[in-house]
Amino acid sequence: MKLLLVASPGVAALVLAIIALGRDAEPSARADIPAPAVGTTRGELPSFRELYERVDGVVARVDARRGPDDPPFGNGRRDAIGAGFVVDARGHMVTNAHVVDDARSVTVRFGRTARRVTAEIVGVDRATDLAVLRVDPRRLGADAPLELAPAGSVRVGDPVLAVGTPYRLQSSAAAGIVSAVGREIRGLTGFSIPDAVQTDAAINPGNSGGPLVDERGRVVGVNSQGRAAGVSFAVSAVTMRRVVPQLIEDGRADQAVLGVSVGSVTDRGARIASVTAGGPADRAGLRDGDVIARIGDRPTTVEGAVASAVAARRPGQRVPVQVLRDGRERTVTVRLGRR
Which parts of the chain span the membrane according to its record (predicted)? Predict the structure, then answer.
């Protein structure tokens, strides 16, 4: 140790030079190691440019028209513009119900090729604000249809990209994050749509029906409502998985209904604000003021949990509902109705 401490200036200079050489050489050594792909390392933002290029080829502007004797769309006109996207090789596309509701004719225009294609309306579900169109698959390009994000894969803070045609501007994209999941929004029928995804990506008129995609290009929702700057909502992939196959197969979708209106939600459960007279809950003996603690094996202690638990069931299915009444716990069996 003493020899190192009293080393000559020449030796010390040599040691410093070796250390400096090692430091200078470190970046060169690392340059041969491939960098991780953008967006694949946890905590990194994806390349939104690459993401947009991946999905743009199967996202289209949707032009819907009503007849001269038909009532106008919600925009006060007899034509409406939204967006849609291809979901399978047979030419099926998903959009919002409010974009094509009661339309006489529909055309779609793909941004990458500017090709305009006639589309037929396969099915519309106003309750969940979803609709399915179909175009001749021979008119589609080589781009792959969009896949749905797996259930449970969407988390608050995940980066997302919304693609559509805001204010009739073809092929526009807006980036943001997932602000919340499990939200409830209202459909065209006034019923709630459970499991909606909230995002701060800009959703404006014309974005309706376009995809909200994650960093892998998978659909996490169908852009549906823009409430205010930084507060927008999409019908979730969870709802799509349940409704879209029914629309493709039958042109309509059956939704289960419990027949209650939910008030406050606490850590004990969801309080029933009102029971629909003659509905499934009423026939099972549920009352105003009961607190629903669990539906089947799903607790109902967060906002939207009741609607989500019911939506996951089929009409006519019998389900145990655990309630708290007058400080006592009881379980009743409810046969769900059809919306």
Answer: none
Look up the pTM and report it. 0.81
Does residue 60 contact residue 207 with C-beta atoms inside 8 Å? no
Average pLDDT, the chain: 86
The phi, psi pair for 338, rounded to 5°, reads -110, 130
Q: Is the dihedral of CA 153, 158, 159, 164 positive or negative?
A: positive
* CA dist., res. 269 & res. 265, Å (int): 6
46-153-202-95 Cα dihedral, nearest 10 degrees = 120
Structure confidence by residue, pLDDT tens digits, 57-110: 999 999 999 988 888 888 888 899 999 999 999 999 999 999 999 999 999 999
| Domains of the chain listed by start with CATH number | 38-252 (2.40.10.120), 256-338 (2.30.42.10)
Q: Which residues pair with 92 in a beta bridge?
A: 134
User: φ and ψ at 326, to 5 degrees?
Assistant: 55, 40
Amino acid letter, 61: R
C-alpha angle 123-126-128 in degrees, rounded to nearest 5: 100
How many angstroms separate the Cα of 284 from the Cα of each of 10, 263, 279?
A: 94, 19, 9
Active site residues: 98, 129, 208
Checking if the pLDDT of 31 tops 70, the result is no
Tokens of 170: 């073809």
Coil/strand/helix, residue 168: helix
